[in-house]
Design a protein that fits this description.
It holds the Pfam family GntR. This protein is mainly α. About 70% of the residues lie in helices and about 5% in strands. A hairpin with a 7-residue loop joins strand 1 and strand 2.
């Protein structure tokens, strides 16, 4: 018989949420052990373990097995982890079309590029732009494997998004990129002349960075749109 009763482990999740909101528990703190949590909430240790597994999947705790001071669950904060996996799973079921994810990325990243270009010059901005340029320098290596190229590509885009100063957008952007990474890899593997494609991508990256550096928001937005659409049209995942 079906009931509306919450699962036993949900009390642990609700308890942790309340303690995080109140500040009684912070990132880096260690949770009580399984036995103590089971006794405190009058639930089984199996339910506690299930709660820890859920929290781990949500990017809220990192668990270490065994005994000693390093064992147990420690509170972390990796908000993009759960969202990335959720998006990837729903993309796999085809409930979320890749083309729609790309269009969502366009909306967020183009707005972020405009805001990044408008940001006032500061030591932090200079350092972020310098880090982005160093990534592009690494990507200029003609012998760089495609997998490493796209790792640096991801970091480059996230650095520029970070200049807009919105951590929620940063988190969503990272999740969107992780959700489409499988399709990016498939596209690259299907490209017959990857060196020629990488030349175009490197040129586009330089144009985007230069526009952001020179506070040319509309140019940065246009260059970014061209870059994203050009690449994903190679795979046929977006409408041209």
């Amino acid at each position: 018989m079906l009931t509306d009763q919450p699962r036993a482990y949900s009390v642990v999740l609700e308890w942790l949420e309340a303690r995080l909101r109140s500040g009684e528990i912070s990132v880096g703190d260690k949770l009580p052990g399984e036995r103590q949590l089971a006794e405190d909430f009058s639930i089984s240790r199996a339910s506690v373990r299930e709660a820890i597994r859920v929290l781990d999947a949500m990017g809220l705790v990192r668990s270490s097995t065994g005994s000693g001071p390093a064992a147990g669950a420690v509170v972390i904060s990796e908000p993009s982890t759960a969202l990335s996996w959720a998006l990837r799973m729903h993309v796999a079921t085809r409930s979320l079309p890749v083309g729609d994810l790309v269009e969502t990325r366009l909306l967020l990243e183009i707005q972020s590029a405009v805001q990044a270009a408008a940001a006032e010059d500061s030591p932090k901005r200079y350092e972020t732009l310098a880090r982005a340029e160093r990534l592009l320098d690494l990507m200029d290596d003609p012998d760089l494997p495609a997998g490493e190229f796209h790792h640096y590509d991801t970091q480059f885009h996230l650095l520029l998004v970070s200049l807009a100063g919105n951590v929620v957008v940063e988190t969503i952007m990272e999740s969107l990129r992780q959700a489409t990474i499988g399709y990016v890899q498939e596209t690259v593997s299907d490209v017959e002349d990857w060196p020629s494609v990488s030349v175009v991508l490197r040129r586009q990256h330089r144009q985007i960075l230069q526009a952001v550096r020179e506070h040319r928001g509309s140019d940065a937005a246009a260059a970014l749109r061209e870059h994203i659409m050009w690449f994903f049209e190679l795979s046929g995942q977006v409408r041209s």
